[in-house]
């Protein structure tokens, strides 16, 4: 049988794309070498735009049933002071959530199966099948080792950074930045979990993210070139980093580390051309950035939606392949252009430039604009609008007027 689409990878990008296409009545096969439920490297944050997608897909109640706490307040600790606020909502989604990936990814795979997609986990794709210069299917093996070939009108790589499809095709990469950071994180009990906290220091960042079971996920982030050194003694480097926020360190040490450390330094920053003859890429396979602003899951949901719409247009004859998939790439790129640059600046772990420092200082005591600044991180306030020179000037002027003697 020839499927309408075969999707390699059944996590947030692959399962969401499969669910949407299967709901459209298409015959979809999803394969993943992992057996689910399965964890993956992640600090789990799904910002409001990602939550809004889940609600729109009818999965809002299932998300809540995963029992990760709803999070409305985000605190951004810069050392001398911190900015805390509640970002604008994204449609119906007022809260962020950070469910463990064992739960979230299975929820999505189940939704794809419920929609009618064939899900084959424990199946590794070893090769891509071509018909001339057109991708026509996959070759792979299940746990028995038996080699299978499956055919489809389109093969979609939702197979992450190391995508076998992107590698085989030689997908063009652009707007590439070298890896900037490396990460280690673990899960702690007994630490305050009523908000997401980010700590930004020169050469270091760390966070505190409430997840399931009353635990918080605490990642520490170093410049990329320190990975080998940190890896030699993770616990020492991890805990000594927290010296940069002594009160937070006290709080953490009063709690208990419940799991081992997880880490990675394989954090490229790229866009890949996400389509060609018989193939498309979605999620990290097509666009990857440092996770410092936790955009990956929400981006994957948006791109799943854009790709499924483009493919539906093609399959149903409303659009030709080139314009439909070109539109997918353009929409993805314009949605993330400003955030990608901001993300790269944050991931440099450099001290804020003087104008940025002045802006952050001016936000103190200005709750409305602080909420909007936090919205640039959560994806619920446009980056370009917040950092527009006239908006920045307005915030700085407001601060100056406030600090004038006699000001109300
Ligand atoms: C340290 C860290 C922290 C992060 N924290 C956050 C966060 O808090 N919030 C957020 O939004 N994002 C976060 N991210 C990013 C987020 O995890 C990714 O953007 C997201 O997982 C991408 O999903 P995906 O479905 O595109 O790919 P992946 O999650 O990489 O899934 C790809 C799947 O493809 C399968 N696969 C690959 N090759 C094959 C093959 N040959 N055959 C069969 N199957 C295959 C894999 O088994 C895997 O299951 C973080 C990333 C890192 C590294």
Tally the structural domains.
3
Rg (CA only): 22 Å
Strand content: 25-35%
Intertermini distance:
74 Å
Structural class: alpha+beta
The major pleated sheet works out as: 8 strands, mixed
Poorly predicted ranges: none
Question: What is the CATH C-level name of the largest domain?
Answer: Alpha Beta
| Tally of DSSP helical segments | 14
Q: Which terms would index this structure?
A:
408 residues; alpha+beta; D-Amino Acid Oxidase, Chain A, domain 2; eight-stranded mixed beta sheet; 14 helices; 19 strands; binds flavin-adenine dinucleotide
What order do the helices and strands come in, and which of them pair?
Layout: E1 2-8, H1 12-23, E2 28-32, H2 48-56, H3 60-65, E3 74-77, E4 82-85, H4 101-114, E5 118-121, E6 124-131, E7 134-141, E8 147-157, H5 164-169, E9 173-177, E10 181-189, E11 196-201, E12 204-210, E13 216-223, H6 227-232, H7 234-241, H8 246-254, E14 256-257, E15 262-264, E16 269-272, E17 275-276, E18 279-281, E19 287-288, H9 296-315, H10 321-347, H11 354-363, H12 367-378, H13 383-386, H14 389-403
Helix pairs in contact: 1-4, 1-9, 2-9, 9-10, 11-14
The structure holds flavin-adenine dinucleotide (FAD).
